[in-house]
């Protein structure tokens, strides 16, 4: 039997944010039916020339997929929503999906320290 990994992710968008977040949530729910979502948090942009606010949302889920497979899958979803290297340079982020933690190991320490991540995870037991 394959090992189940416990994962934490965070999604964010500052461009047609509600639409892109809904797309991401639908796709992720399809592949990870037991995904549990935290609340959606609106934040001001940090270090971006694009001034639209972000919507952010965290989730917990289990999967047999390894971290590299997850990250690749997340990148595919981001690209399908219009994320490109050029959009990132301009600060327009249709969708960002980050694997924050897997099996208790923090993958993105700086992100895990951000206040909005803690707010988005509020009510979810890690």
Automatic annotation (TrEMBL):
InterPro entries: Hppk, Hppk_sf
EC number: 2.7.6.3
The keyword ATP-binding is assigned to this record: yes
Pathway: Cofactor biosynthesis; tetrahydrofolate biosynthesis; 2-amino-4-hydroxy-6-hydroxymethyl-7,8-dihydropteridine diphosphate from 7,8-dihydroneopterin triphosphate: step 4/4
7,8-dihydro-6-hydroxymethylpterin-pyrophosphokinase domain ranges (all copies): 8-122
One family name in Pfam for this protein: HPPK
Keyword line: ATP-binding, Folate biosynthesis, Kinase, Nucleotide-binding, Transferase
Matching PANTHER family: 2-AMINO-4-HYDROXY-6-HYDROXYMETHYLDIHYDROPTERIDINE PYROPHOSPHOKINASE (PTHR43071)
Protein family per UniProt: Belongs to the HPPK family.
General function of this protein: Catalyzes the transfer of pyrophosphate from adenosine triphosphate (ATP) to 6-hydroxymethyl-7,8-dihydropterin, an enzymatic step in folate biosynthesis pathway.
Protein name in the entry: 2-amino-4-hydroxy-6-hydroxymethyldihydropteridine pyrophosphokinase
Organism encoding this protein: Bacteroides gallinaceum
């Amino acid at each position: 039997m394959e090992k189940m990994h416990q994962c934490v992710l965070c999604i964010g968008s500052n461009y047609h944010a509600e639409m892109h977040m809904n797309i991401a949530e639908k796709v992720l729910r399809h592949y990870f039916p037991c995904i549990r979502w935290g609340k959606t948090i609106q934040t001001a942009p940090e270090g971006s020339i694009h001034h639209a606010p972000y919507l952010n949302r965290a989730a917990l889920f289990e999967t047999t997929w390894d971290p590299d497979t997850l990250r690749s899958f997340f990148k595919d979803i981001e690209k399908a929503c219009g994320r490109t290297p050029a959009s990132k340079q301009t600060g327009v982020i249709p969708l960002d999906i980050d694997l924050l933690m897997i099996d208790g190991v923090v993958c993105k320490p700086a992100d895990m320290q951000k206040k909005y991540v803690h707010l988005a995870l509020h009510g979810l037991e890690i």
